[in-house]
Amino acid sequence: MTAQLPLPLAPAAGVAIGLAACLVEDDDGGRVFINGQLSFAWDAGDAATRRLAAVQLVRVRAARAFEVADGFGVDPFTLYRWGQASIGGGPAALTPGKRGPKGPSKLTDVAVAEVARRHAQGQRAVEIAAAVGISVRSVSTVLARVRAESGRAGGVNATPSVDAASVAVPTPDLDADVDCAVVDSMDPVDRVGGGAGADAATAAGPGGGPVGHADPGELVLPVLPDPVDRSKERAAARWGLLPYAPPVFAPAARVPLAGLFLAVPALTATGLLDSARQVYGGVPDGFYGLDTMLVEAVCRALLGEPRAEGATRVNPTDLGRVLGLDRAPEVKTVRRKMGVLAARGQAAELLSAQAVRHATDRPEAMSVLYVDGHVRTYHGTRKLQKTHVPRLRFPAPATVETWIVDAQGAPVWVVMAQPGASLAAEIRRLLPDIRRIVGDDRRVLVGFDRGGWSPALFKDLIAAGFDVLTWRKAPAPDVDPALFATATHTDEDGATRTYLLADTTVQIPLDDTDPDTDTVALRQVSKDAGTGRQVHILTSRTDLPSAQVCFRMGARWREENYFRYGRMHFALDSHDTYGTADDDPDRSVPNPAKRTAHQAVQAARARLSRAETRRDEKLLTLRSPKPDTPTTITNHMHDLITAPVRDARTDLAAAIAAHKATPTRLPLGQVRPGQQVLDTETKLLTHAIRIAAFNTQTMLARTIATATDYRKAGNEAHALVRTALTGTGDIHPTPGRLHIRLDPLHTPRATTALAQLCTALNETATTYPGTHLQLHYSVKSHQ
What we know:
This protein is α+β, with helices and mostly antiparallel strands. Helices cover 40% and strands 17% of the residues. Among the domains are: 15-94, no CATH class; 349-569, Alpha-Beta Complex (Transposase Inhibitor Protein From Tn5, Chain A, domain 1); 592-662; 682-779, no CATH class. Helix 4 (109-120) runs antiparallel to helix 5 and helix 9 (272-280) runs antiparallel to helix 10.
């Protein structure tokens, strides 16, 4: 049989919905026919059943969604909302809500709080009404409500909560209102699940499903409610009437990126926020303040998106909940705010203040400082100076940075190196700044590799109150094998290392080319590598055991490990800005012609040597004839043989004269006109943020290694931290406290380590930046 469409048996007065359905509505109600048979009917005014009929038409596939929406006179999205509401709530969820205002138009939370505050100060109702802009009757209503709530709560929460999102003009004052950063969006009966006054609706959402995951008697939080409305503050910020928007936290469950709250105590300990307030004071008035921008930048770096473009790859609403805002700043806002800070030219001061805080909080780690240069390759079209790139092993346009890390490899300070300056010259230039950071009464061991080899620098370091730690540069004579002995050292992690060492004292001449120059006496610790090769370590510290000297020199690789980790996870070598400026044309640089002249001298010497060799061969042949063969050497023959030598000597003399006449250094404008340098302020500012992000992650990993029972912390601590920071959890703000309840991790042992980390963080009693809310952490069980 051939398939054919059903016959249309719908009433003539109805509205066709697709090919099979028909809607008929009159004064008595409505009816829906499918293939001529009555399928749905409802009385006049029964909106819930009418909506259910529309939803069911789509579900039984009697017509398409847009056809049903058109027949019932609604838009497709409204029909979709009806369907979603009926999934869990049934027909009852389709009952229309009350139309009109949902609350008082003038008695907002801010107005109620202002009335309570003025009443507490002793003002009369008439004065309060005039100041707030409401009637005296409304003032009386508010005061009666406050007294009633005080009586029910036993006088604990007499002042109603304040919605900071309603504040448009006043400057945030944390000391005046402690609870301004807490928004409680639930009714009193919804605050404690299972308690008095709670019913089944308390633990159910719009569709009947659970809105929170809590045990009986614990708080039931809404799952991902809408962010707190900050539209009024944004409007005030656009008119320049708001210095910044303070953090406001609303109760929420299953919040993505809630694990980022774990980074707040460690971030506070890095001193980035305090140093930025000290140096910059703040940013121009707007919605996003200085603390918000820095916390957002550090959070993005911890999520693996350190560049400004990474803001497009992080959900702004999710990150906004961590910041206490409705959404995180966009890329253009990040660039604009960071550009404002960079334009002030105080990035070096920020890094210095951050380094001083680091030295104050970690005196034991600052006993050893490692200094090294880091080359950042440039691949653009700007005319930058070339330098040797160790990772590429050939010269390329690049900028060089001088980094200082502590004994544990944590970055402390960074400066842009002078173009073309050696590591030894950079260390000598930074000695006053290092002394200012570490303090006047501290003797610090400064370690560096062979790139900083300079006996004159060693003498200057010792004279400035520092100690030297470096490899001895070849060539160096081997030490008598009989002097070697076994030595052991146990590091801060409890690992024991064994070395075969010899401890001697050497005199290093200040000038290798002059044997009569002054010398500097240094201690030499020689290590037998086990292959018959000896490596020598020089230091001015005589009180340290030889094994500790060897360990400290090898620990210099912690700085290289930071460079490698920073490139992988924090975009250390990225160019956060491509702004350039003209290089100083009067800066003295090596003259390339000097090298060419030197090469000409070397070539002339080589030609002279070859000419003399050929001359000697020919003369030897003439003076040593075969036996019984007479030989006569005339002056003419001698002149012909020695003529190339005389010409070579003349060329060499001319090359030497040209070399002497060529200046060694010239102004940059004569050697390479138009050379440029990259903008340094933005890069130094981003370095300060990434230093804080790395130290934050390192502190959390170190806490896991020392304060938890996680057996693989030595290898997996950083990976566990990265996983925990991206985890989900609940936000429960209360007056004076911000409780973060994290979801369990992938394995029970990781969850146990996370719970122990939360216990350690709770002991710090850290408050969230910009509020008086003390952070408290906990972890849900796997059950």
